[in-house]
## 1
Amino acid sequence: MRPEEVIERFVAAGALLEGHFALTSGLHSTKYLQCALVLQNPVQAEEFGRALAARFIDARISLVAAPAIGGIIIGHEVARALGARFLWTERESGVMTLRRGFSVAPGERTLVVEDVVTTGGSTRETIDTLRAAGADVVGAASIIDRSSGTADVGVPRVALAELQVPAVDPAVCEACRRGEVAVKPGSRKRAP
Ligand SMILES: [Zn+2]
């Protein structure tokens, strides 16, 4: 799947939003990526999953793991395509954790999957959690890379497409200067 085709699918699903957004980082952006809107179509999720799995077809992956919530759907589809099992990590008191009785076999060859990599932080945390549980994490993957390829997660990492989403401090935001109100993505509420 070519990167242009991946982005086209996001646009077609209304998952690449244009407007004036207040991000959780506190920065403002004119674009916002809402992966859930493209992944709500199971056929689409399956095709992204197969495309990512193809990059690891010879890596003898037996476990795919993803950080909740964003990584769960795509991780599950990658696991299906690889014939691997799937589990997710989640935060407990801010710390990425394996819960729900999930466990890892010693040395189990593991791929960590996310929907979007921005800084790579949650992928790194997930890798750390799995290694602590005994896994051999051999790679990482995401549908979208927002880091321009710079996010270093300590293992080989692939993405189906790169996407730049420039974000600026509200003090220098053009839309704010025009008096436009910033919206928090994922809600219909206005940002404070
Ligand atoms: Zn603004």
## 2
Amino acid sequence: MRLIVSDIPDDGLNMEADLQITVREDSEKENAHVSIDVHRYGKRVLIKGIAGMSSLFTCSRCLKQFYLPLRADFEEEFLPEPEVNKTVEQELTAEELESGFYSGDEINVEDLIREEMLLAVPMKPLCKPDCRGICPKCGKDLNDGPCGCKEDEIDSRLMPLKKIKESFKYRKE
Ligand SMILES: [Zn+2]
Ligand SMILES: [Zn+2]
């Protein structure tokens, strides 16, 4: 989905589309529904929109695969890419730093949506906020109920505390 800058009418335009994008390196492309409002002021282009998709993730605690809904609300400004000499000899202005760039007469909307969607991806995706994960000892999915090794786990966690208490005892004596 490419936007031709010189084709944008003075009163702007609205586009609605389904794009095939991928938010994970290893994944198949998935469908993102996109709705954008585009305005052009001279060569400056403002794109406002929302995008939503459901992407298959692996839960970082229980390792189950699940579909995570992703949503992005964005407003992005695009300027024509600065001339080569300019980037070498002059620093970018504050306005340019906050903007995206387009080269030629085209803006690649797919790239924009992909970037916005990536921002919506959590660092550690969870199948549900209170996912209990899997037991590090026996590998049982603790969402299905507790496993037999829970007692040992608590003991080993208390060990360092016991040692600290013992060292305090020594100091008192
Ligand atoms: Zn999980
Ligand atoms: Zn276990």
